[in-house]
Every structure is written in C-alpha cells, then in structure tokens.
Amino acid sequence: MAKTKELSKDTRNKIVDLHQVGKTDSAIGKQLGLKKSSVGAIIRKWKTYKTTDNLHRSGAPRKISPRGVKRITRTVSKNPRTTRGDLVNDLQRAGTKVTKPTISNTLHRQGLKSCSARRVPLLKPVHVQACLKFAREHLDDPDEDWENVIWSDETKIELFGKNSTRRVWRTKNAELHPKNTIPTVKHGGGNIMLWGCFSAKGPGRLIRVKERMNGAMYREILSENLLPSARALKRKRGWVFQHDNDPKHTARATKEWLRKKHFKVLEWPSQSPDLNPIENLWRELKVRVAQRQPQNITALEEICMEEWAKIPATVCENLVKTYRKRLTSVIANKGYITKY
C-alpha cells in the first residue's frame, strides 16, 4: 500500500475551522477534496489534544531490552576493549539478535563511544605513588615558583608513520584512564629525536639529537643550550631546571656537572610525563609539523625548528599558569595520568 501524503498545517487548521462553524465531515471533505476518514482523524486529534500539530511518535521498540542495555554497558565498563562482535554474540546467547550498528547506537545513548586507545607510559604502583606524592607536596606552591622553572624533555617525531590503534568504549573525558590506554615503553625509535625546553616566557632552544644520546652528549646539550635559553627567556636569579629521571639525566657525572654549574634541579618522580607541561608543547609541535607534510628528514628538521619558534609565548604562559590545576587533577585521579 502506497504511503499517503501528510496534510499541511494550513489544511489541518482549515478542517478545524470548518468543523467549528458546523460543517459535517463529508461536507468538509468535499470542499477540500479530502477523504471523510482523513477529515475525521484530524477533528478527533483536535478534540483530544487541542492541537493539529504532529504528536511525538514513539517509533519502533528498542531491539535491546533495558536489562540487555545494562548488561552490555556493564561489560564494556569492566573491559573497554570488548568489541561489538563480542557484545553481539553475548546478547545472542541471551536470546536477543542484534547487529553491530545497534550495539553502537545503544552504547552512544549511554554516553559511550568507540575511540582509539591512547598510548601512555607503563606505570607500576611505585610510579603512581611517587606521582601522587609529588602532586600533594607541591599543590600549595605559589604560581611564581612554577613561573621560574625551565621545563625540558626529549621527543621523537616521525616523518610518515602512524602508530597502530586499538579501540575502546569510554565516556567523554576518560581517554587517559588506565583501562582506556595502551601502555608503551619510552623511546621506541623514530625518525628524528629532539631536545627542547621552555618556560612561562616562551619556548627555549630546540635542537636535533643526531646520534644515540649518552650522558656526555646530554651534558654537552645542556652546556650549549640551557644557559642561552635561560638568558633569552630572561629567567630570574635562582631559576629551577626540570628534567625527568632518564638514566642520562640522573647519572653521577650529570649530577656533578649540574652541581658545579650551581643549577637548582626540581626533584622529579619517574614515569610521570603528565606532570610535565612540555608534553603539551610537543603535541602542539607535532600537529603543526603534520599539517605541513614534510617529505624528507631534512625538511622535517627544518619545519620542526620553524614551527617551534612560532609557538606563541601565551601558550607557554597558560601552561604554567594552570599547573596547580594539573596537580589537583593528578590528586583527584589518585596519581594516574589525567587529562590536562
């Protein structure tokens, strides 16, 4: 049977007007060229609901019962790496036959969506506790203290490659919960390695590390780039240097070199990149570089240097200004990596 065309709002209103002046359903139908049954349906709706507007339509019933919705929601909450196929099979064993899109739509209504799992450092309980301890100890430090820190780190930038992905079901803003991430080990290789630093005043120097870095090379990098960065960033006397606990950084010779240079070093917990705001700058840099699509290693290095220099000082300033919020978030998440 062909689907009938819906009457316009004006036509429905005319039907009601004619009915109110005393005309019969048949007379209204003849005047407007409509079936008597269509006229009667409009008049009954008006008498019942006092409107001729379309009412809310419930549509087809849900394929998955409320109990089934709770079942699959509980499953992906316990194991975010559960696939749609797994859930289809699970419901089928319970007597409900559904498709993968139905699973997706149902979980979307519960505030869950399928996302690529983030790659994060593998954290042991000792790392989590150290991170939590650092956040608690420094939570009440004045903002001026963080403004006087020079933050540093190394990162790798690939020319083309994309990291493999793994999808997980999660709620909004939960991408860095341990269940929704893929643990990684630091420095798994790449096309170029960079060392850089920054402070609340803006980006410091950025250099390419062309050979495998050891303690001696790291000290040479600091000797040639750290003090010039501090001068360019107009750091106050007594500024503090931050670097992580990489063996090259914590080697006895490096510690002695820093002591002789009278550099104050911020005590830092292991495996805690989320505490270092330079990670945000690395992400900013990688996005900028990817947009320019370098085609070779030489171009990649040149573009990295150009884009690093273009990062506004206000971006750096905001990262430092919000450092207390970063520590608060770490404490709220009990030492685990959190969104910032």
UniProtKB/TrEMBL annotation:
One of its GO terms (biological process) is DNA transposition. One of its GO terms (molecular function) is DNA binding. Residues 149-300 form the Tc1-like transposase DDE domain. Residues 1-52 form the Sleeping Beauty transposase HTH domain. It comes from the Eukaryota. Pfam families: DDE_3, HTH_SB, HTH_Tnp_Tc3_2. InterPro entries: Homeodomain-like_sf, HTH_SB, RNaseH_sf, Tc1-like_DDE_dom, Transpos_IS630-like, Transposase_5, Transposase_Tc1-like, WH-like_DNA-bd_sf. This is Transposase Tc1-like domain-containing protein. Residues 71-140 form the Transposase Tc1-like domain.
